[in-house]
Amino acid sequence: MAPKRPSSTKQNAPPSKRFKNQFDSSKSPSHKSGGSGGGAPSKRFTKTHEPREKNPRRKAPITSRKPHRDESGTDEEEYEGFEEVPMDDDEPEEHHEDTEMVEASARESHANGNDTSTRESHQAQRQVARERRLAKPNGQIVGEAKALWELARQKSISKKEQQEHVAKLMAVVKGKIQDLVFKHDASRIVQTLVSQGSRADRDQVALELKGSYYRLSQARYSKFLVSKLIRYCPIHRPSILAEFHGKVIRSILHRETTDIIADAYELHANAIERNLLLRDFYGREVEMFDSEKVKVGGLKALLESGDGVSEEVNEARKKRIFGSMKDNLLTIFNNPDKGAVAHSIVHRVLWEYLSNIKGLASEDEQARLRQEMFDSCQELLPEMAHTRDGSRAVREFIAFGSAKDRKKIIKSFKPHLEKMCTDDQAQLVLFTCLDAVDDTKALLSSLVSEMVSLAPKFISLPSTTSSSTSTSPSESSSTAGRRSLLYLVVPRTTRHFTPAIVATLAETDTTIAKTSKKDASVRRKELRVGASSGLLGFVEQYAGGLVRDPAGSLFVGEVMLYADGDKTDATAALLEPLSCLPYPPTTDSEATSTHPIDLPHASRLYKTLIQGGHFSRSDKVIIPAPDYSAIAFARRFVEAVGEEKLLSMATHDNAAFVITELITRVMKDGTDYERKEVKRYFGGRDLRNTIWEGDAKGKDQLLGKLKELEAVQV
């Protein structure tokens, strides 16, 4: 049998379940955690850094506790070391009895101190077992193939050498592949031919196995080979998938075959192949009479074609198709333990069902079918939110649902809120909940408060900060998680949400406007007010690290500009790093830590807060943030930094832009005394000469502003 990935329990496993090479044990690769069991030390095969194609993986549902690893996508033959391997059904029982006798004899001899007798007895029994395996059908072929396979699977050899070994391996197994693939060790050998062999080798394997793919997919070990053929042989993929037509529902619910169908649909199949896999959900009538329509245009083309029949006949035909889709979906939903609910092919069928029942003539019939489907899968919705179609289906339920239905949906997702916030598709479900639910108090207590508490996990900060009072949250950052927090303050702003995300969320706006009572602007304000206290507290606690992190500084800018509530403490925390460190740094120890104002993203943050809003590229003006006092922040900035540092900042790159904006703000909104003080600070000729002689990037804008300041009468 082939070496598998190491098992932590291998040392305690009985010898009857350990790897037994039918050739000299000294030729077998050693276990990663130790050498071989006996004989000369074996060669250890180590992985090289040669680039290899990464296996495509399906997304894990937000309900999974561990990273998703699909067996059907596993390169089974690439595992190294030994592992416990279950006995094959066709493995002779006497072989295992002989092995157990070897173990008992070894223990007895070891107890008597006769280690030499133990080794001899062990070798004799192994020889008997080896001869019995060779006497089995194709035993000699399997033995030769294993020897070549051990050479072909090495990572340390050149590509040319590997191809030579693969060619020899193909010559040995050619014509016998059908007889070998049902054994897990021989199946790995054929997998290597598919993944490492030439196109001709793959074609030969595919041709020899033609007509047996469905049976192979149901076996524990040969299913890996089917998955690899689907992946590596696009020419043969239609004929392979054709053997599953008419059996897709049964395959999805089969323990071994389910991942093959899921991988084929999500990772490998083209549009036509996907449509043919989906056809099984539409019923026997479609399979018999409308296959070509489905093949080319999918369900949409099938429903739009009237074929010259009356409206009543066409409506009845649609209902039969929807009835078949519903029955097949219920079959899957009623068997959640099979794992098929998380597959994107199921989510696609559900979305097609929900989106196409809108074409029925009766709105009452649409509502009835939608409600029946929701009642059958409401507890399973968290397993669907991670795919595009699954997310659309769940958002459709939210948009059309009653207040009671929406409450059930929120309850089902609450245990998975953290993963929901960090998943690109699942977070759209969360945003739709925030857009649709009228009971904002329930939202604040059940979702929003917990989202805000997760802020330290969603924003990555430097391990050390310039602020002695702030500590750094988790190092793991998440763009999606940060986007979830920003949706509470600035929902759908194009600064953080792509046009595609905004367009996707807008799909349900019309429906939500009909099914929700509260105005959207009122709902968003209530959520923003409820979330602001926690977000401002987060900014205050981690201000020193946030201003040093590019993503964190963007987050701080949005919270400070658009959150509601008292921002005094958060402002003081943001200005503390500027007041604590001298500027410019004067010693070697101080020079090792860059002053925040010299960081491009930090200087942009302070500039944005002083100007009181973001610059609009279309209107070419600053759009002021409502309920934010830019002059108040400018005053605190001057107080915290002080005159000496302000003059020094005027002569440096990034800080010069901040000083320019500070002068603009004070001259526009400041008092006469403040304008006089600013003119006293920056009106000197010596400062202008120093700025002119320097090489600061923003010196031209600053000099222009100083010229305007000189002309101001105060």
Written description of the protein model:
With 714 residues, this protein is mainly α. The chain is 61% helix and 1% strand. A hairpin with a 4-residue loop joins strand 1 (613-616) and strand 2. Helix 1 (93-111) runs antiparallel to helix 2 and helix 6 (184-196) crosses helix 7. 39% of the residues are buried. Residues 1-53, 67-75, 77-99 and 464-476 have low confidence and may be disordered.
Report the radius of gyration as a whole number of Å: 34 Å
Rounded mean pLDDT is 82
Spatially, the strands of the biggest sheet line up as 1-2
Helical run tally: 39
Largest sheet descriptor: 2 strands, antiparallel
Q: Which structural class is indicated by helix and strand composition?
A: mainly alpha
Q: Helical proportion?
A: 55-70%
Give me the oligomer status: single chain
Could you give the distance between the termini?
A: 91 Å
What percentage of amino acids are in beta strands?
A: under 5%
- Low-pLDDT sequence parts: 1-53, 67-75, 77-99, 464-476
